[in-house]
Automatic annotation (TrEMBL):
Family affiliation: Belongs to the 4-hydroxybenzoyl-CoA thioesterase family.
Domain of life: Bacteria
Protein name: 1,4-dihydroxy-2-naphthoyl-CoA hydrolase
GO molecular function annotations of the record: fatty acyl-CoA hydrolase activity
Keywords: Hydrolase
Pfam families for the chain: 4HBT_2
Native organism: Planococcus massiliensis
SUPFAM superfamilies from the UniProt entry: Thioesterase/thiol ester dehydrase-isomerase
Upper lineage: Bacteria, Bacillati, Bacillota, Bacilli, Bacillales
Length: 146
């Protein structure tokens, strides 16, 4: 399993009146982590868009564990949790600099044609990308792929 890491400097504008990171900003950080993972693997989401495809979010789930605050650094860890014919699920951990878990999340995506929004198989349009996701997707504790 390949895990990508991206450090985020928490800006004042990302916090709420209580001085903690506003919950919706985690979604932005997940996107930053996902983009970093894709780039680490040698692909680009921008390139996908240039080719006429999009990868919209179809589901997202976040569990908040420990607040992050302005002036701290967050580390976003991202991996491919599951990958199938049409759907890819990414897994995430957002950590404090000391490794404390601040949040964990998953997001599910499909690839669609930009002009019709009809789903397409990533295996057909980007066989190398599909193969890489199959190679790195998470394995269960018994070694069997999820």
């Amino acid at each position: 399993m390949h895990i990508s890491e991206k450090e985020i400097e928490i800006r004042y504008a990302e916090t709420d009146q209580m001085g903690v990171v506003y919950h919706a900003n985690y979604i932005i950080w997940l996107e930053i982590g996902r983009t970093k993972l894709i780039e680490d693997l040698g692909f680009t989401y921008a390139g996908m868009e240039e080719d006429g495809y999009l990868s919209p979010v179809t589901d997202i789930s976040i569990q908040y564990k420990a607040a992050l605050r302005y002036g701290q650094k967050a580390i976003v860890r991202t991996w491919v949790e599951d990958h199938g014919r049409l759907r890819t699920t990414y897994g995430y951990e957002v950590l404090h600099a000391d490794g404390t878990l601040a949040a964990k999340a998953t997001s599910e995506h499909v690839v669609v044609k930009k002009d019709t929004f009809r789903p397409v198989s990533i295996q057909k349009i980007y066989p190398e990308w599909h193969a890489k996701y199959e190679e790195i997707k998470r394995k269960s504790p018994d070694g069997v792929r999820n």
